[in-house]
């Protein structure tokens, strides 16, 4: 007669092995919505900034044409596509920019800077998703927080983690500060994170 403990022991060993692997996998899956919250928040701002930049660009060109002077070439760190606006320059540009070309030029520079910030932070958010699964696992979330010199606690609720990241974006956006963003990106790159073809395709999508 086979000892009653032989089969259960083998089964238990397999079960424990599977359980250990399952625990390891579950330890990595800790996003629960942080990536969609953070990336979605930025993508929404990108859409707003693209429209505002397109308006400023259209009106600046219109004012230049009125002077019969070709506009200065815009300096753009990232290539983007401008949305089609329902804008009638003759009617709308003087109303938006009562100060004329100078105010349009100042607003153009401001809107360009804001769009550059939102696009660069969106790139940063994509790079931080190391395995391109549209989620931040525990390791990715930890690395993202540390790259920004933020304290990360695995017990932090996803809603709070997302709020921390969006608040940091708002801070960068208000100050038009890309220095901390680039430092954070550099820290991620030092740990092996990269701008992948998936990331590039997603960045191109929001720029269209």
Task: Write a structural description.
With 208 residues, this protein is an all-alpha fold. The chain contains 8 helices and no strands. It has helices at 6-28, 34-66, 89-96, 101-127, 138-147, 158-175, 179-190, 197-207. Helix 4 runs parallel beside helix 7 and helix 5 (138-147) packs across helix 7 (179-190).
Helices, strands, pairings?
Layout: H1 6-28, H2 34-66, H3 89-96, H4 101-127, H5 138-147, H6 158-175, H7 179-190, H8 197-207
Helix pairs in contact: 2-3, 2-4, 2-6, 4-6, 4-7, 4-8, 5-7
Notable traits:
208 residues, mainly alpha, elongated
Short structural description:
68% of the residues lie in helices and 0% in strands.
DSSP summary, beta strand count: 0
SS-derived structural category: mainly alpha
Work out the strand percent: under 5%
- Estimated radius of gyration: 24 Å
- Note the overall shape: elongated
Order of helices and strands: HHHHHHHH
Number of helical runs?
A: 8
Mean pLDDT: 83
């Amino acid at each position: 007669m086979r000892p009653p403990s032989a089969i259960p022991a083998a089964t238990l060993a397999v079960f424990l092995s599977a359980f250990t692997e399952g625990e390891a996998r579950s330890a990595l899956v800790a996003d629960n919505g942080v990536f969609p919250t953070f990336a979605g928040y930025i993508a929404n701002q990108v859409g707003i900034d693209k429209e505002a930049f397109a308006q400023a660009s259209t009106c600046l060109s219109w004012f230049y044409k009125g002077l019969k002077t070709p506009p200065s070439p815009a300096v753009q760190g990232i290539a983007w596509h401008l949305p089609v606006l329902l804008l009638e320059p003759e009617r709308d540009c003087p109303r938006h920019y009562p100060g004329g070309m100078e105010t349009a030029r100042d607003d153009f520079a401001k809107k360009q800077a804001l769009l550059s910030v939102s696009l660069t932070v969106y790139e940063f958010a994509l790079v931080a998703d190391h395995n391109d699964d549209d989620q931040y696992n525990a390791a990715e979330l930890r690395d993202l927080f540390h790259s920004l010199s933020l304290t990360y606690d695995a017990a932090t609720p996803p809603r709070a983690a997302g709020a921390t990241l969006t608040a940091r974006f708002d801070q960068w956006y208000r100050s038009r500060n890309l220095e901390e963003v680039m430092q954070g990106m550099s820290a991620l790159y030092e740990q092996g994170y990269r701008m992948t073809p998936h990331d590039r395709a997603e960045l191109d999508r929001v720029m269209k």
